[in-house]
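pasting for the record
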Amino acid sequence: MFGMILKLQAFMERLKKKKALWFTTLTTLSILGIVGTLYYLNSMTSRAAKNLYEATNASYFYDLDSKVADSMHKLDIMGSMLVNNQGFVGAMNNQNDTAGITAQLKKVSADASKIDKNIITVELYNKNLVKIASSAEAPILNGQPYDSKAMMRVVATNQPITAIEYQDGQVFLRAVYPLANGILEVKKSADFLFDVYSANDKVFQVLLDKDLLDMKKVQEFKSQKIGKSEISVQSKVDKDFLQKISELDFDKIITDKYMLTDEYFVLAKPILNTDGKRVGMFIIGENMLKDNSLPKMTKGISTGLTTAALGLVVALLVLMI
């Protein structure tokens, strides 16, 4: 080891005697060190930004899950109170009095909407999954059975269930309960989340997989094709946002946890049916051009660090000259 040190010292002495080679070596080593430092700083900021975006995915969707779970819980409480009210249940089981049932459903819906500040719809179906009464202003009562996994499971198990499903042109948060002669449903359109996120300068959209839907029934209502196999059925949409994401690979967004486009920070979370199969996805978007947006702040931090690194490079080069 001592011999190696002596040889290295001797090599350095010989190198110093050759001035041109000495300064060339110093310059090369300095440039390599600067370039290496610059690369490290750039890669460090990229990794930090990636970690921040992935953490944001978890944070945003934890918040979304909380909002959905809270709404489901309220619908469940409301439905449980109704099915435990013997007078109400007796009226629902008397399906010959559709006018009386409808009046009761409308009253329940009106009282609930005063508390929730969103439209709560209450509907009654027979055992064949045909809707026979509704609190909606213009209900769809066409005598056709609904292809609902949630209601099928309630009939099969005689147990209540909560689910997110498409029905009559909208996506609903639903609480479904078995009755002696049918099924009671308490539901709220997912469109309310559009307003919640808009208030915080974010975009919320629901996309459904059209391959898992009866497109003949879907075409009776307003919808918009997005990507290869998704559609948007919401009544409240951000047209510019939908246009900008229409060609994105949503499977990749789910896998990578986020995607950055020229204008938007995009997140996607799968919607699963009662069988655990993906039937659509929640999309959250944030405009990268807004001053208070997370993507713009993150980009600003990364740009600042990169600029500082470049300044360091220039300063060192000037000193070397």
